[in-house]
Amino acid sequence: MRNLFPLLLLVLLAGFASAQTETLPPSPDQVPLPGENTPTKKADTELGPTVQLPTLTDPNVTLLGGLITKLDPVRDQFTLRAFAGKRMVIAYDVRTRFFLDGNPGSERDLKAGQRVHIDTTLDSKDRVFVKTVWIQSPSVAGVGRGQVVNYSPSDQVLLVRDELSSQPMRFKLGPNAVVKVGDKTGSANDLASGSLVTMTFGPQQGSLGTLNEVSILAKPGQQFVFFGRITYIDLARRRFAVTNNSDHKNYDLDAHTLPDNILPALHEGSEVTVNATFTGKQYVADRVSSAPGEGAETPQ
Q: What was the pLDDT predicted at 206?
């Protein structure tokens, strides 16, 4: 009996040691919730496939204006009828910026029939890609600036080369449209080809914008006086520029009609008075003097 006691004690000690080495059950915060997958090292380190966007191959940017005739959100593209009459398919992606009436927007703001201005380039797929889209709501009045190409009195349609896009745009004078020449009231007969104008237009009617007001800034043959500092001089091209004090705008002037000794005597930074004539294509300097000009007439 005494020989059995050490053997029994040995068995009890072995069983106690085995119980101490058993795996403990997981704590409640270690138990995955129903439907929850336990993350693995592979899931933590693997990223999804990178989207490869077409590269923009052409560094040059072309400005266009026109009407959206068709939307294709599946392919991320829309059809534009340019103001010159040409139709083209325009592509966009996440790099494209959208502005609605001057405020940041998105591709969801694009709608068929909208008037837009866009800057475009070519991508690696030889598509016309748009970098920025300026959307104008039909119900919002806008302001434009350009040069008169032609005016048709019979249907009161004004063709203007837009300053932003350099594309011809057609507008219809509204029934109560006002034409101004400087600070005076003029008429539609003053809308001569080559004139520089600013336009205020209201909601679009049909395919044409309706003009509420047209202000004529300069007409071919009109004379102006600029007074300000010379900002640059190009002797080879016989051109110089003056920042006009009255409107703080920079005017590029042709100096081919000036005597040969005048342009070399001018210096950047000096103040001058320039009598110039607008030809419809440029301002031609007729006379330059260092004396301040009084009562200067300048385009607005």
A: 58
Residue 268, SS3 per DSSP: coil
Residue 137 to residues 85, 86, 182, 195, Cα–Cα distance (Å) = 21, 22, 29, 27
Q: Which of 144, 277, 171 is nearest to 219 (CA)?
A: 277
Give the pLDDT of residue 41: 37
How far is C-alpha 178 from the geometric centre of its chain's CA atoms? Answer: 29
Query: Per residue in 220-257, is it b (16+ CB within 10 Å) or e — as a string?
Result: eebebbbbbebeebeeeebbbbbbbbeeeeebebbbee
Q: Which CATH number fits domain 223-289: 1.10.357.10, 3.30.70.890, 2.40.50.320, 3.40.50.720?
A: 2.40.50.320
Q: Which CATH number fits domain 62-136: 1.10.940.10, 1.20.1530.20, 2.40.50.320, 3.30.300.30?
A: 2.40.50.320
Q: Which structure tokens are listed for 270?
A: 């000096």
Query: pLDDT value at position 97?
Result: 92
Please tell me the class of the 142-218 domain. mainly beta
pTM over 0.70: no
Handedness of CA 81, 84, 86, 92 (dihedral sign): negative
Residues with pLDDT less than 70, the chain? 1-61, 83-85, 124, 137-142, 164-167, 203-207, 291-300
